[in-house]
Amino acid sequence: MALLLALLLVLVPAAAAAPPNIVILFADDLGYGDLGVYGNPTIRTPHLDRMAVEGQKWTDFYVGASVCTPSRAALLTGRLPIRNGMMSAKNRVLFPDSLGGLPQEEVTIAEILKPLGYATMAIGKWHLGHLPQYLPTRQGFDAYFGIPYSNDMDKTPGAPRGPELWKHPKIEYFNVPLMRDEKIIERPADQTTITRRYTEEAVRFIRRHKGGPFFVYLAYNLPHVPLFRSPKFAGVSLRGLYGDVVEEIDWSVGRILDTLEEEGLARNTLVVFTSDNGPWLIFDEFGGSAGPLRGGKGSTWEGGMREPALFWWPGKVRPGTVHELGSTMDLLPTIAAITGAEAPKDRVLDGYDLSPVLFGKGKSPRKEMFYWRGDKLFAVRLGRYKAHFYTRSGYRHRQETAHEPPLLFDLGVDPGEQWDVAGEHPDVIEKIRKLAEEHKASIEPVKDQLLERSPEALTSRAASAKATGGLPLGGAR
Ligand SMILES: [Ca+2]
Questions:
Q1: pLDDT on residue 17
Q2: pLDDT at 2 (0 to 100)
Q3: What is the Å distance from ligand 1's center to 276 Cα?
Q4: Which of 41, 178, 288, 312 could disulfide-link to 271, CB 3.0 to 4.6 Å?
Q5: 196 near 230, Cβ under 8 Å?
């Protein structure tokens, strides 16, 4: 008995100190207004709503950029993509003919967790470089299962022209590869079953590593157009095809939460859900909704970069709605703080530790948000105010509009950015101007990773753009 007690005394503190598992669920092009708990009247998301009720729902949570590649780089590194060349004036994202990717010397969340013995897996869309040296397996992930870039890329010559392409998409229109680790295992990827298969991979990985600790980064490649869902989800949503797709993602989230509970891991696992950028509005009902926010994907209006964000960790995350500022760039420092991992100290990080807010012990250290587009700082939020130095719609318009003085919106009362109050607050504008100048001075020039593309691939791409009539799916994203 004495021996048993002594053993317990040794074992109990060790168990209490075990670092938590981390699961990041990252949707693609899901808007601020697309979940039930964020006010969507027709898309049913009971599992995500449950995450919000049992955990924290953030109302002012931002991504690092309004399109895929730079936003993903920001989440995984805790840095603005302008600092590591993952944001470019010319190309907005990486393409199948791109030669660049997230530089090897960048440190990802997976890489800070590896020294602590975490099993790490990336599932889903990567979009940080498809060449071998840029794959997840070279950035701290033990395993990978997913597509290396967007689900609308690599269009085949037989793909139809015009709206037919996204209104009635077929697997064979998009020659997107599905990879396991560093090998292509299926091409074109069967996108109708892809959300289900990502889910099964995640569930299997969690079960296999239930002894912990583990880190799962599951980046769904939907609801980015073209929209696909399993037969089981066909026609289930009042919101049409887009709603079906979001409801399948919600099902997936439910499966993952259930698995954590079934395995007794819920109380030692932080689950985060958010999206990489706002809704792709040029696709009308085939894109999502930014709810009350202005603009969408591709723009620095709130609709482009403010996202749903849910944090779930029963018994640890204090349930409630949080109106403070947060960002995907804060995930790396936050995860470092709660696991004891070491965040890199030899470079500028743009993230903050949000754990005081998650645990109900303090305020968010984040007071500002920088909205970059290409190589230009378009807007800055400081507290409740946001100043736009430049504005430009997400797609279609070729030119930006410069604003002097900048447009100023009080997001506290006007999250839809409708009423310019610059005339009433010259002091606020001066403060933001100073902050913007200091911030810009901290950015050092680096190699543009999105710039280089291979000439042969460009030729076949030009042919494919011609075949699709140069419509949005063939355009620059
Ligand atoms: Ca996206």
A1: 64
A2: 56
A3: 5
A4: 312
A5: yes
- 8 Å CB contact between 122 and 431: no
d(CA 23, CA 209): 13
Residue 38: CB atoms within 10 Å = 25
Secondary structure element (H or E) that encloses residue 180, with its range = strand 178-180
Q: 3-state class of 164 per DSSP? A: helix
Listed residue (11, 51, 9) closest to 27, CA to CA: 51
Q: In the prediction, which pLDDT does 4 show?
A: 54
Provide the 3-class DSSP secondary structure of residue 451.
coil
Q: How far is the CA of 144 from the centre of ligand 1 (A)?
A: 19
- Catalytic site positions: 68, 127
3-state class (DSSP) for residue 77? helix
CATH number for the segment(s) 20-366: 3.40.720.10
Could you list the mean pLDDT of each consecutive 10-residue stretch along the chain, which spans 477 residues? 53 62 98 98 98 98 98 98 95 96 98 98 98 97 98 94 93 97 97 98 98 98 98 98 98 98 98 98 97 98 98 98 98 98 98 98 98 97 98 89 98 98 98 98 96 71 44 35
Neighbours of ion ligand 1 (CB under 5 A): 28-29, 68, 276-277
Q: Which residue ranges make up each domain of the chain?
A: 20-366
- Taking Cα atoms as reference points, which of 133, 101, 137 lies closest to residue 121? 137
